[in-house]
Backbone:
């Protein structure tokens, strides 16, 4: 047999093996129902920071407003641990962008009790010197997407929410939010990393273990955790393998890249990460992620696919047509309007 024939035979064998692998049943990353997959009514309406184009980001009032627009809304929230060990909702690891505190306020060096006792107002959108950085320039008061100012009394919250303020937007804890909306689904991101991030995650699991005893169903079946930091993701995997088998989470960047490569090779049978969702932008690093095949392949693994952060009507419609499971948005009102229109 000539060398050329041997090479050809080798390629043929590899192709047959690849084809056989490609038709094998795909592993199911989530057994049974995945609460973060789409329903027949369309993708999940995921309120980014409570949908902060409508109300100040990460405040109780923002989440109340999102719920009033869409009772099935999924609450997205970023969590940081304060100096007195309270998990509060904050997009950044500092309080510089959203509050009227003096510049230089790292969350883990500020007491939650101080924020409440001094009625610190979280109704600002000031410029920072970088992501999660410190404020530069003057305070910029919050206005919604129409350029209007809003007040805490402009929205109705559940009667169980009693510790709010009529004049300023107070910081909100994750415990307050879950107690106010005990049946919602949640997408929660641990913002801190290293030892502080590990402590934040441990604090969250301890809190949810306690809350879970009060719930009629399993709270963990309605909570999707995430982190952009590999060390926190590794802790999530460890917790699922040991103490919290029902834990649901999405991967950080490495896991997305791994899935993306295997997806293009049609070899996702080898993707074994124990994740419940992929939460991705529509494109990254020159690669397009919003394709029908990307979505459908993940769904065959019972992995939900959510795209962030989408505020444009045309893009929302395109993603809905792709059959995505969730859209993370600052405009829950706009997405709800589109979904209602498509249902008619």
Residues:
């Amino acid at each position: 047999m000539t060398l050329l024939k041997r090479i050809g035979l080798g390629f043929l064998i590899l192709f047959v093996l690849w084809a056989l692998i490609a038709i094998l049943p795909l592993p199911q990353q989530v057994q049974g129902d995945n609460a973060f997959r789409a329903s027949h009514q369309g993708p999940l309406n995921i309120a980014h920071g409570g949908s902060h184009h409508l109300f100040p980001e990460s405040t109780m009032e923002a989440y109340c407003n999102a719920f009033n627009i869409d009772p099935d809304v999924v609450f997205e929230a970023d969590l940081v641990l304060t100096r007195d060990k309270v998990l509060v909702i904050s997009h950044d690891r500092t309080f510089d962008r959203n509050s009227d505190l003096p510049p230089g306020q790292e969350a883990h060096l500020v007491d939650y009790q101080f924020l409440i006792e001094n009625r610190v107002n979280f109704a600002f959108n000031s410029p920072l010197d970088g992501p999660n950085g410190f404020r530069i320039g003057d305070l910029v008061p919050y206005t919604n997407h129409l350029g209007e100012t809003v007040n805490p009394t402009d929205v109705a919250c559940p009667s169980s929410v009693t510790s709010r303020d009529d004049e300023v937007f107070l910081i909100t804890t994750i415990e307050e939010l879950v107690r106010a909306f005990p049946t919602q689904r949640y997408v929660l991101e641990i913002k801190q990393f290293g030892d502080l991030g590990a402590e934040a995650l441990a604090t969250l699991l301890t809190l949810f273990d306690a809350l879970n005893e009060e719930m009629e169903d399993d709270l963990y079946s309605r909570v999707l955790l995430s982190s952009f930091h590999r060390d926190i993701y590794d802790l999530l995997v460890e917790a699922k393998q040991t103490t919290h088998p029902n834990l649901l989470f999405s991967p950080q960047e490495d896991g997305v890249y791994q899935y993306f490569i295997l997806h293009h090779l049609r070899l996702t049978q080898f993707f074994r990460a124990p994740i419940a969702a992929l939460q991705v932008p529509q494109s990254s690093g020159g690669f397009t992620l919003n394709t029908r095949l990307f979505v459908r392949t993940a769904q065959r693994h019972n992995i939900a696919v959510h795209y962030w952060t989408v505020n444009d009507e045309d893009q929302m419609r395109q993603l809905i047509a792709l059959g995505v499971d969730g859209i993370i948005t600052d405009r829950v009102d706009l997405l709800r309007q589109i979904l209602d229109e498509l249902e008619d």
User: Anything to note?
Assistant: The domain at 51-245 is CATH 3.20.20.190 (TIM Barrel). The mean pLDDT is 92.
